[in-house]
Task: structure prediction
Amino acid sequence: MKIGFSHVRDDLAIKKQVVRDTGWKADDLPPRYSAFPNTRPASPRWEWRCFILSCDDGRKFKLLIEASPAYGRWKACLIKVPDSGPPVAIMRFEDQPGKNGGGVHIHAHCDQISDLCGADSIKMPYTLPDHRRYRRRRAGWTKALFCKAAGAFFRTDPIVDQEEMAL
Result:
C-alpha cells in the first residue's frame, strides 16, 4: 500500500464511526486487532483496547489503544484495513515519560512514498514535534480520558467511557 502525506492527511481527516469495541484487556494482543501478523504477548502492567471503525465511503480502520498507567505510558495507533493485504499503521498518538522522547507527540508516515504493510508500518520515521524539542506531558491521564483524546484526535465518534475511580 502506498503511503504519502496526502493519504495520511485524508485518512486522518475523514470522520469515523465506532462499529465495535473490545473493552479493556490485559491478555495477549491477537493480530485481528493490530498491525502485527502474529499474536503479541502481553507485557506486565499494560492493557489494550481496540475500536473497529468504518467510514461512510467504505474505508475501514482500527484504533488500537495501549495504556500503562503505572509507567505513565499511553499509545493510540490508527491502523488502516485495506480491502486486500495486511493492515497498515499510519499514525500513532502517544504520551510517555523521558527527557528526549517524552511528552505528547505524534509518529507518522508523512513524506514516505513506499510500500508499507503489517508490522513494518509500526516503524514510523517522522515525529511531531521533533525529538529533542520540549514536549509537554499531560498530567492525570486516565484510560477514559486518553480514549477520549485519541478518539478526538483521530476523528472518531465521541468515545463515551465510564471514568475509573481510585478506591
Notes: Residues 2-153 form one domain.
